[in-house]
C-alpha cells in the first residue's frame, strides 16, 4: 500500500495529512491503522489532523473500525478537519462527533481546512 499519511509544515505548524482518497474496505482500515500508528509515534496529544476522504467508501466494516478507534484518536488530537464528505459520510461524521464527543469540522477546500486547523 502507498503511504497514506504524511506530516506537512503549514505556516510553522505541523499537520498530519491522512489521505484516504479512493479507498474502501480492508485497504481503508489498514490506512486508518497506519495513520493512527504514525500519530502515536509522535508522542503528542495536540495533533492537528486533516483527513481527505474524497471518493472513498465508508462501509459497515470501516464505520465499525472508526467507532472502535474514536477514543484513541480523540486522546491525541487537538483539532481535526475533514475534506470530501458526501451523502452517508456526512451522517457518519455527525455520529462520530456525538459518540466520541469530537468536533471534527467538514470542509470542501483543503487550504481552508488547513487555515482553520492552525487558528
Report on the architecture of this protein.
By secondary structure, the chain is α/β, with parallel strands linked by helices. The chain has a single domain (5-118), classed as Transcription Regulator spoIIAA (2-Layer Sandwich). It has four helices and five strands, in the order E-E-H-E-H-E-H-E-H. It has helices spanning 25-41, 60-75, 88-99, 110-118, and strands at residues 5-10, 13-19, 47-52, 77-83, 104-107. It has a five-stranded mixed beta sheet with strand order 1-2-3-4-5. Strand 3 (47-52), helix 2 and strand 4 form a beta-alpha-beta unit. The chain is globular. The relative contact order is 0.18. The mean pLDDT is 90.
Q: What is the name of the CATH architecture?
A: 2-Layer Sandwich
The low-pLDDT segments are none
Total count of strands: 5
Helix content: 40-55%
Q: Structural class, from secondary structure content?
A: alpha/beta
Order of H and E elements: EEHEHEHEH
Question: Strand order across the biggest sheet?
Answer: 1-2-3-4-5
Quick one: overall form?
globular
Q: Class in CATH?
A: Alpha Beta
From the N-terminal CA to the C-terminal CA, the straight-line distance is: 33 Å
Number of helices: 4
Instruction: Compute the average pLDDT.
Output: 90
Count of separate structural domains: 1
Largest beta-sheet characterization: 5 strands, mixed
**CATH fold-level topology:** Transcription Regulator spoIIAA
Strand content bin: 25-35%
- Rg measurement, Å: 13 Å
Amino acid at each position: 500500500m502507498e503511504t497514506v499519511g504524511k506530516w506537512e509544515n503549514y505556516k510553522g505548524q505541523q499537520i498530519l495529512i491522512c489521505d484516504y482518497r479512493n479507498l474502501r474496505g480492508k485497504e481503508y482500515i489498514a490506512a486508518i491503522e497506519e495513520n493512527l500508528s504514525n500519530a502515536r509515534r509522535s508522542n503528542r496529544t495536540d495533533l492537528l489532523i486533516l483527513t481527505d476522504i474524497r471518493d472513498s467508501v465508508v462501509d459497515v466494516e470501516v464505520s465499525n473500525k472508526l467507532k472502535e478507534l474514536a477514543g484513541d484518536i480523540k486522546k491525541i488530537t487537538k483539532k481535526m478537519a475533514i475534506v470530501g464528505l458526501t451523502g452517508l459520510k456526512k451522517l457518519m461524521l455527525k455520529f462520530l462527533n456525538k459518540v466520541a464527543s469530537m468536533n471534527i469540522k467538514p470542509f470542501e477546500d483543503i487550504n481552508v481546512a488547513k487555515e482553520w486547523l492552525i487558528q
